[in-house]
Structures are given as C-alpha cells and as structure tokens.
Amino acid sequence: MTFHPLDPLAAAEFTAAAGILARERGVAEGWRFASIELVEPAKSVIAEFASSGVAPERLARLVVLNRAENTTWVAVVSLTTDTLLEWGNVPGVQANFTVDEWDEADAALRAHPDVITALAKRGIVDLDNVFIDTWTYGDAVIPDQYRGRRLGWADIWVRASTTGNPYAGPVSGLHFVIDVNTMELLEIEDSFTIPRPEVMGEYVPHLIPERIREKSKRPPIKPLDIVQSDGPSFSLDGNLVEWQNWSLRVGFNYREGMTLHNVGYRDGDRLRPIANRLSFAEMVVPYRDPSIDHFRRTAFDIGEWGLGFMTTSLELGCDCLGEIRYLDAVLHNSKGEPYTIPNAFCIHEEDNAVLWKHVDHNGSAEVRRMRRLVVSFHVTVANYEYLVYWRFYQDGNMECEVRATGIMVVTHLEEGQGHPNGTLVDKRTYAPFHQHFIVARMDLDIDGPENTVFRTETRIEPINEANPLGLALTQQNTPVETEGFDDYNWDTQRAWKVVNENSMNGLGTPVSYKLVPGAAIPSFFDPAAPAFQRAQVIGHTVWVTPNDESERWPCGEFVNQSAVDHGLPEWIQAERPVRNTDLVLWYVFGIHHITRPEEWPIMPADTVSFWLKPVGFFDRNPSLDVEPSPSAHCAPAAGDHAGHAGHAGHSDHAHEH
To answer: Is the pTM of this model over 0.85?
Structure first.
C-alpha cells in the first residue's frame, strides 16, 4: 500500500489535529469539531512529489464551534511539524451541523417535560415509538426573537410499532424550536391537529399486511451469480485504482464524501490527464410546499450536514454484486475523535451488454462485450438515500449516475381535502413536491491544465441554393471567454466541450471532452424567493470559473442559517478570463420530484446521470483493442444472414467464467 499526498486523513491524523487545537487554543469541553479535513496539496506540489518522491507537508483544516459564545473558528495545522499555522474567527456564520448535535437534540427533546406534555395532549404517550428529526434553518425563516442563536427545528413522527416506518406517522402541526448549542427548548409550535388516517406505510416484509402481501406475491427469481474466477481485472494499491488504461485515485472528506483525483487514460506510452478532481460540491433540496409543516424545509445536504458524515457501509450482494474490492473511510465525531466507516467505497466491474458490433454481408461478425469499472458510495440523509456511481468505460467515456431512494416526507389531510403542492399517496396522506439539485464540481485537465470551454449547438440551416431540401445541419462551437453561467437548450441540443487548444490529435484538431448534459432541470423559483437567494447556483445549468483552490463551495462555505449565496454569483463578478486556462466546470443536475403513489411507502430508485465523452481526444475508436469474448458462439454460422439465424424455442446457453 503506497502512500500518496492525496490519501485521506487517517485516524491518528484526526487525533493529532484535534490535539494541536486542544493544546494551543483550549479547544476541548464546550467546543465542537464541526469538520477536520486534509488540505489537499496544489497541483504543482503533487507534480513535484511525482518526480522526486519527497512527500509534502501534511496539513489539516479544522472548523470548530465555541458553544458558549456561539462563534465559529477556522484553523490550519501542520501534522508534519505538530504546529498550529492559522487560527481565526469567522464572524456572523454558523458551522455545519454535526451528527452528535442531531442525536443530542433528540435526547434533550424527548426528555423535556413540556415535550412529553405536548405529545400526551395528542394521545402520544409511548416515547419509544416517537422519532424526532431536527432540521436546520435558513435566515429568512428564523424567528426574530431567536436571531443570533444556533437553531434547529424538529419534525415529530410516530411509528406504528417499535420496528415500523417512522416516516409513515407524521404529527402534523407540531414542531419544536431548539438552541443546539445549549439544547434549550425555545418554543413548541402547536398550530393544528389532524386525525391520523389508517395508512399502509410499512415496507419491511413482516410488517406489510397479509392481504397486500398475498395480492402482490410474485414468483421467486433464480440466483444471478457473477463469477470472476481469476479475480477482477483492476488493481488497487492503497487508493490508486488502475483498469483498462484508466488510472484514478479515490479520496474522501466530511463534506463531499467520495472524491476522485488524477483521472487519466493510458494512450500508448502516455498517461493522458483528463480530470484533476471530481466531486459533488453542493446538494440543495427545496420543498415546494408553503404550508406550516414544510415552509422551512430546504436542505443543503452537503453544506449543512456533509455527505461524508452521512456515508454508510456497503454490503456484498445487497449494495454491490460481483467480485468486489472495498475501501474503508475514516471520519471524526464532534469531539475530534476518529471512527471508521467499513466498506465505504465499492469498486467492481460490470458487464454492460455490447460495446461494438457488426455483422458483415459475408456472414462474418465482430462483437465486443462492454465492460465498465464502477466506483461508488452510498449516503443516508434522514429520509433519503443517495447512491452515487462513477463509471469508466473502455471507449474513454465517463458516466456519473445518482440514484435517489428512501422514504418521502408525507403529511396527513382532513377528510375530502386535497393539496395543490403535493400528491395523494395514501389515505388522507400527501407527499409534497420538491426538488433535488446536485452541483458537480469538475476540475478537468484535458491533456493538461490549459483548457477552454466551448458551447456546442446544432443549427438548422435555411433552405437555399446550397441546401435545397432543407437537410443541412451545422454545429456551432462558441468559446467561453469570461467566467459566468450558461443554460441548457433543448432546441439546439446545447452541450459543452472542454478543449485543449494547445494539444492536437492525429487529425490536426484540438482534443476535448464533452459534457453531455442529463437531468438538467430549471429551478422554478421567483428570483426574489429567499430559498433561491441562498442557492443561486441552481438557477443555471453550467458555470465556468478559473480554478481557485479556495473556491470550493458554490453557495459559500457556511450555508447553515445563510441568507445569500456567497459562492458562484459573487465569484463571477470579477469577470476573470477563462480561455486557455486552468478552469472548473460546475454542472447542476437533479430530480424535479413530482411525487407519485408508486413511490410510497418506499421509493424505487429514481436515476439521473450525465456523461463526459471524448470528442477528438483519440484519433479513432480507442476500444478497437478490446479482446473478444472467449465464446465460440458470438458469430453466426456461415451462410446465416442477420435476422434469420434465430429460431423460436431455441435457447443457447454460453457460460463465461
């Protein structure tokens, strides 16, 4: 296992970083460690390490919270020299929430006599079945009397049984406001009551009523075994993955979760760079229901909570199938103490049908199976799961896929009542409309760091003497000269190419990779809406900025209780040039979730994705050298013509091991 400067912090490094602040600034009892992360070395430093083998200084950045003063502090420490390098207060901001605060808020509220009384008034006396879910605030919805505090507001849910689905039993109209520094109950909001309807909100098999299980009972499926008797075709050395000409490093931090670094493709005797760093920089989930139960419900799952803190362990045969290799992840609690997430990342190969094929008229055929490398991790953010897959293909394509599953938030209704901002999913129960916006931050280095983004669009040419039948299409490529944003356009099939104008392929044209947009959705917000003001990134599909290692978070670093977006909208005001420079491409995609009954009581995965595809990066199909399958049955028999070789009722089983 070879060390690399981009390797995530180890357990001992978390302990050392926390220890430096305890020693130098008394950060211990009364404080919280909101985040500890590696300060990733600059590209030039990584390049120097690659040539010399001399490891750079190991640095960590910490955000800590003084609970008594409600102040946020940022520190940088050297783990190499055991010294404090930077220390300062960031006024007027709130650090990200921690898992410990969520747990402590639950314990404090369920033990509070006023909470017990409020629940008893609604007939809820068995607190073992009560689930308390604390959310964060945006500035616009903070009650004036509580400004200046670190606030949370809580939803209340009641399970039908001790193992039942908590999200099937909302206690409508009842919310608690809590100071999460002191764990003081500030207010009980008891605005209205709804009689609980008879719902079927269970998804664990033994809790589903027999009448429903019998009605939907299906024949069993036979085993699907994926066997690689000689092991996988990829290699794993520490966090370095190599497979079928691809090379990449897996990273991890509290906020982005899994990150990918130094993504390159070996082309002949050259390992050609494609991406320096790929990650998700923000996830904005606004609920589009202004009712009393939902008007505060806008989540910044990355900035407020952190995908790293929400990462879950993966299980063979459940989350991943095949010949799997896992990587663990290490994080810390709010005392700065490390813990391990076993099997946090799954790395495996998948068969994906046909890569390329042609059957010639003389009866000969060439077929290649498509295989892809998948690097994935899963996160659970309260009621939702997000399953993230980065896929690498033998033809140089990359795909980023996100699957959203889990349980929708629901609210009960009065008899005969509907709701304009949601869908009826059970008896007198609706699920609000909402949206999931994900911001991918892509530091692409196509054959090197000096790149230019080109907007690429298809244009219909008018009927004229040169185009009498109106058949002509042309492709327009317009360079982005100055940082800013752009929007998807269906009518022109707009996409974006990242081009290295200094590197030519064998055909004499510049090499590039194209962002093929998928799941690009409009915000559907009035620009004056407070939820939009603090997440203006979701107003556009693509943003382009020069690469600045301090510009990591598109809505600003501190989004908890924020009022405005201190990220991309402010950065682009500098109008910096982005032609032929080291740049970052930000892509906004997601799910416009108009809820459905078929997504209740648990949601089948809703899948969205985008692609990065080589356009002139290679001189020709780079997968020509993929080996044919070791099966004798891939080509039709001599004399058989395509379309006539198959016969009904005939089944030919070829097993590949």
So the answer is: yes
